[in-house]
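Can anyone check this?
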Amino acid sequence: MRQMFPRPSGPYYRTSPQDKVPLSQKALYSAATVALIPGNQIIDRIALVVLNTSLAVSPTLVGVAMAIFRLWDAFTDPFMGTFSDNYRSRWGRRKPFIILGAVLCAVTFPLIWLISPSWSPMHIFLWFVGAGLAYYTALTVYSVPYWSIVAEMTPDTHERTRVIAFRAVIINIVTISMGWLMWFITLKQFDSMLQGTQWLSLITAALFLTFGLIPMLFVKEPFYTQASKQEKISLWGSLKDTLTNRIFLVLVGMMLLMTIGMQTVGTLGFYVSLYYVFHGDKTAAGLVAGYAGTAMMITSIVTIPIFTWLDRNYGKITALVICGVAFLFATLSQWFLVTPIHPYWQIISAALVGPAVTGVWIILPSMQTDVIDYDELQTGCRREGSYTAILGWIQKLGFALSVLLAGIILDVSGFDVKLEAAQTEDTLFKMRALFVFFPIATATGMLLLVRFYPLDERRCHAIREKLEARRGAIHAE
């Protein structure tokens, strides 16, 4: 590997003791994802299946609803990012909004699923959109400040990767339960998938009031003292500076391509499993989805130390390329492993995909923190919230586009929910082909963009030295 991926030229940097984030701070910060991951993923993972197969809402109409949420985020996320960047209080810039957002999320999330099966599909669609807009506003208040804090916990580029890796461990543990969502809402104890989802929403509300709220009261913001001295930035000025940062736009492109590819796999995957592998048996498909999700997260957790090692020894750019190539091969394997002849081979496929996906979501957010330092060098301002908001919106846009694309793919393929297990062979073939080869195309696009990202280890440390010469050193507390 050293011959294929040599270490970056120049000095090899090690994290100094004063730059290391204490384990307690890593744990407190990461604990909030126990609430945030269900809050982020439940709608993306099950809305299409529940609204389509249980309530007969058109897949395309569900995709339209998801697109509406992302358009709304396009306004609320940048506003929240700039507002939190400019906010000054005795509790910091971010924590007051995190506390408020946790409470609002707990109230609004269950409202989304207060749907009656007797309603018409259009009535259901309108309720879903209205309640969803209220929830996603609350989630913006919570999530934008939360994701912004990681760039403020330490100035060291490698320690930031370790904080994100620690967070990824908790995220993957929580995501194991996300793989069992379909199994949970199809339990025989529930009258319908809708009723199962309603109980799930109450559990999520309780998580926001505990894990989402309490740990964040004790997380520190080392950069707040320095950031509180800077001039406040207008929303439009912040957007202009953010969207004209060419390095950031490269990162945006990579994030969007990988989000669309990965999420489309998840959205179409259950349909392929349900109708191609299990011939319409929802309980069996939900059970295997749970096992597959568990296997994916276990292999992801086990391999997380590899990604931090790759970052430390070979740099983030090389680490991202390795993850991208691994994703290509793992996704291709699904053509052979997702088969009705051996239905449980899906678990092997998921175990192969998991590490590559996790690696991408460790390295890309860590690259974002380096872009924030580069921006401070150019503008003289710390704007973690603004960058987090834009990149977060891009990621959510990718989720929405993947659901919309999945809905369109299902309609174009000839999928008819009324046929249940009697889908045509042509429909099943089209679903399988796009399920496998569409994410391969997006991952290839991401790999082509990597060559335009210039912030390697050497340049990141040069940026830090210039910043500290200008405004003094800041260390983890």
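Reply from J.R.: I decoded it. The chain has one domain: 29-471.
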